[in-house]
């Protein structure tokens, strides 16, 4: 099984497209790969030199095509309509950019006031900017809060850095009262975050995007089966767009390496999901109650058919998370049920 991780580098992702709607079972995988490459190298399809075709992938009927030049990928996507005419029955393809995935950006709010008595906050922010230049920081507010935006992996690195700094300060000053509450608050939190200071976290810690974690837990058997296989327990702290897992050995330390093994396995699997999943969102805020009800009913009705799609219902919106092809088809059918066209 080919792995999408081959194109995980940011530079390659800009030259990569997601191709959905490939006919499954009509021809063998090798021939289908050749047909896909030929199609996207044809100048009549706005194509160019194809560097790599990844097929099959974890998702049926989906391939990843990497071009030598970024502009070719953009031209192919701009064309929109693509059809594999070489097939007995021409296959209509859905093409989208590889970077249009669910977890490319995270917005969060940091509360740095807990560090105020120990170090200068402006100095701390300058250190963080130098340490993680990929992040965008807003001006520091008087109350110690600051907004941060960037990729999930950069946000993850930021949180881990802050936890290490907090842990170091706690170690140096054991006799003083520990800061209360979490130092991390997401700007999209739907409920107050639970307290989780570094001192309370035992075992191996793993930070995940919340959407990734929810899909991993609710739509994949891997998570629960891995914990069961290695006799591990997991404390889950959901804090808006960030979820922290604390993995502990359930056998009282008889197998100390289990915690690390479980962390590595879950991290590797979730990293693959990070590049394979996409998210579509139905905005409910501002719509009439009848329209809201119709959207919710349509999503509930289709969720029983799309078992690999995770539907998360919120007060202001509904998130649809799954493969590129599944989320596209799911949204298309929802719009059809409520008698609207896909935009």
Describe this entry's structure for a reader.
By secondary structure, the chain is an alpha+beta fold. It contains ten helices and 15 strands. It has helices at residues 10-14, 29-41, 70-79, 121-131, 152-172, 210-219, 222-229, 258-276, 289-303, 324-337; strands at 16-20, 50-54, 62-67, 82-84, 91-97, 106-111, 136-137, 145-150, 184-186, 204-209, 232-239, 242-249, 277-283, 310-313, 317-323. The strands form four sheets. A five-stranded antiparallel sheet has the order 2-3-1-5-4. A hairpin with a 3-residue loop joins strand 14 (310-313) and strand 15. Helix 7 runs antiparallel to helix 8 (258-276) and helix 9 crosses helix 10. The radius of gyration is 23 Å and the shape is globular. Mean pLDDT is 78; it is low at 1-9 and 175-201.
Oligomer: single chain
Shape: globular
Q: Percent range for helical residues?
A: 25-40%
Count of helical regions: 10
Describe, in short, the structure shown.
The chain has 343 residues and is α+β, with helices and mostly antiparallel strands. 37% of the residues lie in helices and 24% in strands.
Please tag this protein with its features:
alpha+beta, globular, 343 residues, 10 helices
Topology (elements, then pairings):
Elements: H1 10-14, E1 16-20, H2 29-41, E2 50-54, E3 62-67, H3 70-79, E4 82-84, E5 91-97, E6 106-111, H4 121-131, E7 136-137, E8 145-150, H5 152-172, E9 184-186, E10 204-209, H6 210-219, H7 222-229, E11 232-239, E12 242-249, H8 258-276, E13 277-283, H9 289-303, E14 310-313, E15 317-323, H10 324-337
Antiparallel strand pairs: 1-3, 1-5, 2-3, 4-5, 6-8, 6-9, 7-8, 10-12, 11-12, 13-15, 14-15
Helix pairs in contact: 7-8, 9-10
């Amino acid at each position: 099984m080919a792995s999408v991780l081959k194109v995980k580098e940011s530079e390659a992702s800009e030259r990569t497209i997601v191709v959905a709607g490939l006919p499954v079972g009509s021809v063998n995988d090798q021939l289908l790969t050749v047909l896909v490459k030929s199609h996207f190298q044809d100048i009549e399809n706005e194509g160019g030199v194809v560097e790599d075709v990844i097929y099959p992938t974890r998702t049926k009927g989906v391939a990843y095509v990497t071009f030598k030049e970024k502009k070719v990928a953009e031209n192919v996507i701009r064309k929109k309509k693509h059809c594999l005419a070489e097939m007995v029955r021409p296959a209509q393809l859905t093409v989208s950019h590889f970077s249009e995935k669910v977890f490319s950006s995270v917005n969060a709010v940091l509360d740095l006031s807990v560090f105020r008595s120990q170090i200068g906050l402006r100095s701390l922010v300058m250190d963080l900017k130098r340490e993680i230049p990929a992040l965008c920081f807003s001006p520091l507010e008087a109350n110690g809060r600051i907004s941060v935006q960037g990729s999930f992996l950069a946000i993850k690195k930021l949180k881990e850095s802050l936890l290490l700094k907090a842990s170091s300060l706690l170690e140096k000053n054991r006799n003083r009262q520990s800061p209360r509450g979490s130092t991390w608050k997401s700007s999209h939190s739907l409920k107050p975050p639970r307290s989780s200071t570094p001192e309370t976290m035992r075992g191996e810690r793993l930070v995940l995007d919340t959407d990734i974690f929810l899909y991993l837990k609710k739509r994949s058997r891997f998570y629960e089966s891995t914990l069961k296989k290695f006799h591990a327990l997991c404390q889950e702290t959901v804090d808006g767009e960030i979820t922290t897992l604390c993995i502990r050995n359930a056998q009282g330390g008889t197998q100390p390496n289990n915690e690390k093994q479980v962390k590595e396995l879950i991290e590797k699997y979730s990293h693959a999901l990070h590049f394979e999943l996409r998210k579509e969102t139905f905005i409910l805020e501002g719509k009439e109650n009848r329209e809201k009800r119709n959207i919710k009913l349509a999503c509930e009705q289709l969720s029983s058919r799309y078992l690999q799609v995770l539907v998360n219902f919120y007060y202001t919106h509904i998130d649809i998370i799954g493969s590129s092809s599944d989320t596209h088809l799911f949204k298309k059918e929802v719009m059809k049920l409520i008698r609207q066209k896909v935009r």
